Amino acid sequence: MTTILLLCASNVMMTFAWYWHLKFPGQALWKVILISWGIAFFEYCLAVPANRIGYASGTFNAAQLKIVQEVITLSVFALFAVFYLGEGLRWNYLAAFGCLIGAVYFIFQK
Questions:
Q1: Could you tell me if 67 and 104 are in contact, meaning their C-beta atoms sit under 8 angstroms apart?
Q2: 81: which of 35, 64, 87, 94 fits an S-S bond (Cβ 3.0–4.6 Å)?
Q3: Tens of pLDDT, residue by residue, the chain (110 residues)
Q4: Are 35 and 41 in contact (CB under 8 A)?
Q5: Element of type H or E holding 105
Q6: How many angstroms separate the most distant Cα atoms in the chain?
């Protein structure tokens, strides 16, 4: 559970690092890059331990970690797009999420 919680927190931070500035197109690019790097540093402080804990504990293999990461990423991004950017939740978000759920199913099969 620690791995999942850390990955969720890191994904929230990385989504903001990559996309927060879209609401501020007038800001200088160099400023948003520096701010995004600052946010990404703290994201890495969560993502790296999450992956190490999940892998070293034997809970997840590398492929499982990657698929879990992608599901979390898409989930966080969909929420971010709707609530922060004010975009609608489109059918293709749901279709992509469905495909990732299929990927989760297959990656955890023995």
A1: yes
A2: 87
A3: 999 999 999 999 999 999 999 999 999 999 999 999 999 999 999 999 999 999 999 999 999 999 899 889 988 998 999 999 999 888 887 888 888 888 888 888 88
A4: no
A5: helix 91-107
A6: 51
Are 17 and 78 spatial neighbours (Cβ–Cβ below 8 Å)?
Answer: no
Among 70, 67, 65, smallest CA distance to 48 is for 65
Q: Which two tokens stand for residue 16?
A: 């903001």
pLDDT at 19: 95
Predicted confidence at residue 39, as pLDDT, reads 96
Token pair 């690092």 is at which residue? 17
Residues 102, 76, 14: CA angle, nearest 5 degrees = 120
Q: Is the dihedral of CA 89, 95, 96, 100 positive or negative?
A: positive
Q: What's the CA gap between 19 and 22, in Å, rounded?
A: 6
Please, what is the Cα angle at 81 between 80 and 84, to 5 degrees?
A: 60
